[in-house]
Amino acid sequence: MGSLTNQAQRFIAHLSDTDKKQLHNELLAVQQVLTVNQMTSFYSFGLFKKNTRPHYSEHRKRVLQYKNGLNEELIIHQIHQQTFFKHTYCFRIYFNMEEMQTTFLDTLLNLLNEEKTFSPLKPHFVNS
User: Fold this and answer.
1) Long-range contacts of 43-51 (CB under 8 A, 24+ apart)
2) Are 43 and 87 in contact (CB under 8 A)?
3) For the chain, what is the mean pLDDT?
4) Which pLDDT score, from 0 to 100, does residue 50 have?
5) What are phi and psi of 56, to 5 degrees?
6) Are 43 and 86 in contact (CB under 8 A)?
7) Mapped to the 3 state alphabet, what secondary structure does 12-56 carry?
8) Contact, 73 vs 64, CB < 8 A?
9) Distance separating alpha carbons of residues 119 and 122, to the nearest angstrom
10) CA dihedral 37, 8, 111, 113 (to 10 degrees)
11) DSSP 104
């Protein structure tokens, strides 16, 4: 298809401004979770009472889906599975139904950071 950078540039070029803002915010959140939990598993002994039920298993999946004007599609699956005391995180990234590495997300985030079309979020303070 082409290089990751070319694919990412073409994808971003044909996104609406609101989708760019939303994708940027979502990628920042995904990047933070990725750096801490990607393909890791750990044991937690919190919520002991809840987890003592036999064969306790909880599976949570978050799906981010973006489509641009050229009908190119980016899908990110964030999967968190908890079985008894063990927590496992996994990420799957698909671009046009082709599985991609996490470097594609880094490329998208870098390109969005370079763009000046949107302003950073500013906190709103209530005067008392």
Assistant:
1) 43/85, 43/86, 43/87, 44/85, 44/87, 45/85, 51/84, 51/85
2) yes
3) 79
4) 52
5) -70, 130
6) yes
7) HHCCCHHHHHHHHHHHHHHHHHHHHHCCCEEECCCCHHHHCCCCC
8) no
9) 9
10) -50
11) H
For residues 65-79, give the mean pLDDT.
92
Confidence at residue 3, expressed as pLDDT on a 0 to 100 scale: 87
> Which residues, other chains included, contact 20 with Cβ-Cβ below 8 Å and sequence gap of 6+?
12, 112, 115, 117, 118
Of the listed ranges 25-29, 41-45, 59-63, 105-109, the least confidently predicted one is 41-45
In the DSSP assignment, the letter for residue 117 is: S
Please tell me whether residue 123 adopts helix, strand or coil conformation.
coil
Query: Among candidates 68, 65, 66, which has minimal Cα distance to 78?
Result: 65
Closest CA to 5 of 97, 106, 92: 106
Query: If you search the block for the tokens 């981010």, which residue do you land on?
Result: 64
* pTM score: 0.71
